[in-house]
Write a structure and sequence with these properties.
single chain, Dihydrodipicolinate Reductase, domain 2, about 30% helix, Rossmann fold, alpha/beta, 9 helices, about 25% strand
Length: about 325
């Protein structure tokens, strides 16, 4: 396959390159696209150094699959040139996720939304994708009526610059200096704060609204009751989520919950009360699976259980999910 990455120099773009090698993705030509200021630099791909090109009207000629990871405005700007050139676009921004005509896909959950003639597929918000990996196997046990989520979101969700800011601020604090916010609005080292997105009239920040809207779309449950609180924590990589799930009738047996999660592709159960070992971002960082544990009943509600989830924001929350979509497209694109 001839592949293009728009936003190749960003944190997610770098993960695409690593995943292509690790998963032996069949690449013919690889085109790395970015803004003019990055043009001329080179990125390592295996033993090769590939030049970065400034994206332009002819950048997608001959490209079969284009990964977009340069933000919503760039996705809107370059979608039509990519489609006109014949590429199928997998978009990692928020630009098209809630468009009813665009499938919002986690391959293990709702691949049936993709048709042979689909040319644009939206990659979900990282927090929603990680959450849905735990919810999907449980709705097969009993209908889910409500989900309450608190998130602990890492710097990777805000990009490479935020990750560097956390590193720099941590070093500064340990040296007795004041942390200086530049990328994020508040001191990040040894602190946490509400997710750095605008608050809507309903009192939700933009991230919370995305998680609710996108989870409902991925699961095909537009009326699913949800309440989400999103918080930035001083972790470099991997998001964590504390989740309470209410079922429409009685909660399923905990052993059945454990088995459903353990047998679901892309989920790894980490749940050992004897050693107090449960999902942690340090364990999830670099892992392709979503880690799920702290499986227990909610003592305040007879039809509810609680979980703790960790997933790598740059992998299942972004690049890995997109590459898995592309892998499922390969037979279609090759005519098999």
């Amino acid at each position: 396959m001839n592949i293009a990455i728009l936003g190749a120099t960003g944190a997610v773009g770098q993960e695409f390159l690593s995943l292509f090698l690790r998963r032996k993705f069949p690449i013919g030509q690889l085109r790395l696209l970015a803004s003019p200021r990055s043009a001329g630099s080179k990125l390592a791909f295996g033993e090769d150094l590939i030049p970065v090109e400034a994206v332009g009207p002819d950048s997608f000629e001959g490209v079969e699959i284009a990964f977009f990871s340069a933000g919503a405005s760039r996705s809107r700007e370059w979608l039509e040139p990519a489609l006109r050139a014949g590429a199928t676009v997998i978009d990692n921004s928020s630009a098209f996720r809630m468009d009813p005509s665009v499938p919002l896909v986690v391959p293990e959950i709702n691949w049936d939304q993709v048709r042979p003639d689909t040319r644009l597929i939206a990659n979900p918000n990282c927090t929603a994708a990680i959450l849905c990996m735990a919810l999907a196997p449980l709705r097969n046990l009993a209908p889910i009526s409500r989900v309450i989520v608190s998130t602990y979101q890492s710097a990777s969700g805000a990009g490479a610059a935020a990750m560097q800011e956390l590193t720099d601020q941590t070093r500064a604090v340990l040296e007795g200096k004041d942390p200086e916010p530049k990328v994020l609005p508040h001191p990040y080292a040894f602190n946490l704060f509400s997710h750095n997105t605008p608050i809507n009239p309903q009192g939700q920040n933009e991230e919370e609204a995305k998680v609710m809207e996108e989870t409902r779309k991925i699961l095909g449950q537009p009326d699913l009751g949800m309440n989400v609180t999103c918080v930035r924590v001083p972790i470099l990589r991997a998001h964590s989520e504390s989740v309470t799930i209410e079922f429409a009738s009685n909660a399923p047996d905990l052993e059945a919950v454990h088995d459903a999660l353990a047998s679901f592709p892309g989920v790894r159960v980490v749940d050992d009360p004897l050693t107090n070992t449960f999902p942690m971002p340090i364990s999830a960082s670099g892992a392709e699976e979503v880690l799920v544990g702290r499986i227990r009943r909610d003592p305040s509600h007879p039809a509810a259980i609680s979980l703790f989830i960790c997933g790598d924001q740059l992998l299942k929350g972004a690049a890995l999910n997109a590459v898995q979509i592309a892998e499922r497209l390969l037979p279609v694109k090759s005519g098999r």
